[in-house]
Structure formats: structure tokens, C-alpha cells
Amino acid sequence: MSTFLKLASKSWNNLKEIHTCSMLKTINFTQEHNELRKTVRKIIEKNINPYVNKWGKQKSYPIQDVFQKLGSAGMLGITRPSKYGGLGLDYSFQVALLEELSNINCFGIINSISIQTDMATPALARYGSEELKQEFLPPIHAGEMVSCVGISENHCGSDVANILTKAERKGDELIINGGKMWITNGGEADWMCMLANTRTGPRHKNKSLICVPLNSPGVTFNQIEKLGNDCCSNVEYFFEDVRVPVKNIIGEEGMGFMYEMSQLQDERLAASIT
């Protein structure tokens, strides 16, 4: 069986495992789940909901402060191994977290937190090299590093196969050129889980997911004006000759399309819970 088909099978199995575990929420919540809920609820009631109207008028919220409060309570890496700063719990505890996040009085903030836990980081945790996981996951789980995910582009929305952003290999570096649109947490994010074309070939086999530090030279962005959810920023990013190490590719080069399909399963399920 080809690597592509093996990953497709693994991706489907991941989805079945997540759905099977999430079904347990109706019958198997325990006192431990309730304690987690209380922790999340306390943070929301004390540090988030009283300030939502103020943050909406400011068109931003103190994302670093909120993330660090959640991170110090262990809420940003619930299912991740302890060696990366996670709690090592099963997905039913993530369901409890996501259900509690739905009590935040601004969907933009719910989405912002979910980017950190369920949208930008699952592929890194699942397929990334040990070096990448050690570099990125501990500060992400501690709330010290803000994440965003770069898939959508101006010309194609979230049509993953038709993205145009390129990351060309030159020696031990990738040279990135292109743009990403509608990026939640953009402007405040420290890094992006970016999907880019890294070689020629069929559109589902020529892409890679890359950890891109957003303080890199050549990265710029514009804020996007919206009709609502003003607490949370959305921006358009531009990348001009941005250099990142080849080692920042998540997993195997050319498998980014499938890795992102796997990651989207986590994202869609999280969205349905919140």
C-alpha cells in the first residue's frame, strides 16, 4: 500500500476514534470531567466574560493573557503527552473543555482558543518530528506561543487543492512566497501552521505543512474589517522571500494535503461541539 493510501486509512481511523470517544460524553462524564469544567468556567467568569463588551469596542482582546491563564491550568494541551507540556488525557476531556468554552459570550474568542487547541496544532502533534514537537508544543500548551493556521487564500478561499503559495527548497531552507487570507489570531500569532506547494506534481501530493515563525523577515499583514466578532482579529498575510528551515516541514514532504485533511477532522468536530 502506498504512503498516501496508508495515511488516508490512518486519517479515517483517527476520525472514527474521535467520534467514538466523543459519543462517550452522554454516559461517561466523571467527577474528573466536572472538575475540569469548573476550572474552565472559573477562568471564563473571572477573566473573559466581564470584559467581552470592552474588548469588542477595542476590536481586540488580550490573547496572550487569556492563553497563559488557560495554559497554566493545563487547558491548551489536554490530550497531548506530558513530555510536551500536555495532560495526556483522552478526548472526552477535550469535549468537556470545548463544551465549557461555548459559555464565552463572544464566538470570536471561542474560535481563537480553538485555533490553538484543535485547528493549528493537531497535525504537528500527530505527524511532526520530535525536534519540532519539542520546539513548538511546550510553549503552545503553556499559552506562551500563539498559533494560527494558514490554509485559505484570497483567490480560492479554503479550496485546499488550489492554493498558490509556494515554498521552494534552496539548500537547507525553504523560500516562501504567497499570501494567506482570513487568518484568525493573525497579528498576535507567533507562528503559522502553513500549507504551501513545495514541489510539482498532482495537487494532493505536492503540498507540505510548515511551521512558519511570523517574526521572520518578509512577513507582513493587513487587518480585515468585519461586521462582527470584533474581539478576535482576522488578517491577510503576505510572504515575500520568507526563509524557514527545511526541518520545519511537518512530517513527510508532499503529504501536507492529507495531513491537513486529518487536521480538519479535529477542527470540524471542535466547531460542532462549541
Automatic annotation (TrEMBL):
Its cofactor is FAD. SUPFAM superfamilies: Acyl-CoA dehydrogenase NM domain-like. One of its GO terms (cellular component) is cytoplasm. Residues 148-242 form the Acyl-CoA oxidase/dehydrogenase middle domain. Keywords: FAD, Flavoprotein, Oxidoreductase. One of its GO terms (molecular function) is acyl-CoA dehydrogenase activity. GO terms for biological process: fatty acid beta-oxidation using acyl-CoA dehydrogenase. It comes from the Eukaryota. Gene3D superfamilies: Acyl-CoA dehydrogenase/oxidase, N-terminal domain (1.10.540.10), Butyryl-CoA Dehydrogenase, subunit A, domain 2 (2.40.110.10). Residues 30-144 form the Acyl-CoA dehydrogenase/oxidase N-terminal domain. PANTHER family: ACYL-COA DEHYDROGENASE 6, MEDIUM-CHAIN SPECIFIC ACYL-COA DEHYDROGENASE, MITOCHONDRIAL-RELATED. Belongs to the acyl-CoA dehydrogenase family. This is Probable acyl-CoA dehydrogenase 6. It comes from Trichonephila clavata.
